[in-house]
What we know:
Blueprint lengths: L8 E2 L9 E3 L23 H7 L2 H8 L5 E3 L2 H10 L4 E3 L1 H7 L4 E6 L10 H13 L4 E6 L3 H12 L3 E7 H6 L1 H9 L3 E5 L5 H9 L7 H14 L3 E3 L6 H20 L6 E5 L4 H15 L6 E7 L4 H4 L1 E6 L8 E6 L21 H8 L4 E5 L1 H15 L5 H20 L4 E6 L7 H8 L10 H8 L7
Parallel strand pairs: 5-15, 6-7, 6-9, 7-8, 10-11, 10-15, 11-14
Antiparallel strand pairs: 1-4, 2-3, 4-5, 12-13
Helix pairs in contact: 3-5, 5-6, 6-8, 9-10, 11-12, 15-16
Bound molecules: pyridoxal-5'-phosphate (PLP).
Pyridoxal-5'-phosphate (PLP) binds next to helix 12 and helix 16.
Amino acid sequence: MSEKTIPYKIYLEESEMPTAWYNVRADMKNKPAPLLNPATHKPMTAEELGVVFCDELVAQELDNTNAYIPIPEEIRNFYKMYRPSPLVRAYCLEKKLGTPAKIYYKFEGNNTSGSHKLNSAIAQAYYAKKQGLKGVTTETGAGQWGTALSMACSYFDLDCKVYMVKVSYEQKPFRREVMRTYGASVTPSPSDTTEVGRKILAEHPGTGGSLGCAISEAVEVATSKDGYRYVLGSVLNQVLLHQSIIGLETKAALDKYNINPDIIIGCAGGGSNLGGLISPFMGEKLRGENDYRIIAVEPKSCPSFTRGKYAYDFCDTGMICPLAKMYTLGSNFIPSPNHAGGLRYHGMSSTLSQLYDDGLMEATSVEQTAVFEAAEQFARVEGILPAPESSHAIRVAIDEALKCKETGEEKTIVFGLTGTGYFDMVAYEKFHNGEMTDYIPTDEELAASFAKLPDVE
Ligand SMILES: *Cc1c(COP(=O)(O)O)cnc(C)c1O
């Protein structure tokens, strides 16, 4: 097919939309390590996990064998309101860079939550409703997950209790108000509404909170309140499964025009968008059908893949959640307050951790100012004002395209543009004023945090 017939935006017809999620674990020879009970260090059973999570989601979490899991019709119908998301050929960016590379991005910012997180939020709310629950609890850092979940809960008429990291609660009042518009209750964390919150407040008065701390509070409320369960917006296997919709659509759109990507790039916080984007491509790689270069991009201030340890660790500060084996900086690690809030988690999805450890994907880290330079460059030619998180992927996509300019290679690059940055204008302001800095943790700081990893195996 000739170059000219490839449109700026490749859409799928409703009839071409995926009807099942793809579970990459089914094709992995080395399965991700199981979650462990923090007290006994034995693999968590479905029964134990069922105290915290909805039953159907527990089944998905533990399913290492079924490659395809049908997407229930109610979820597919909700997806139809904002999906398929466009796969855009970045003709204008290519031209501006003067690169022979062909750049595509999958844009997930086309819904009110402004990110890919709604793909999993709607699924998790659906299963909670189906189980007859009253509501769900969760944490949110930058606010994207809380926003997505409050949208999903209002759709299914579920109560939604969000524990929001206190600094974000104070710095991002607009995110908070979007959540309240959708009917969620939002509590700044740490709070005095939970035992773990009171304990953390007593130990660290005046703390601005952290994701790990907000998780502990949300889990405590879910497990102590009748008819409630906890939901999480990233890291877990089930979340990567739901996010596979991104990759399945991308693959279907590329296949329509016989496009074979050479490089696939995504930003990595807990790993859900990247895991979702790459899943069908990784599946081909695992089955020996095709090969791709896959690159995870993380901030230099929170470098779980590139400087972390592959070890069992706590998922939360309060140490009440199961232990997960993952690339981690240690649950005690408090990343410096960089502006890509969604990339500040200390650990990484255990599925992606295993794939990375097996050499099936690469990782790189980038500095904040370089990320905002890329964000601005992208916004000026492609029209979309990207989220700081997403801009990590833009940075590396641009760098790879510039390498092609030097070598003359016409590589095809696909990257995930996870969301829009309208709620991040304070960060853009700092960048424009030249006030942006990037704190890179020292080896000593990381070593101190690694020393507190739990003693497992
Ligand atoms: C949450 C978020 C991320 C990072 O989360 P992952 O689970 O690693 O995908 C990236 N981009 C945006 C816009 C987000 O909201």
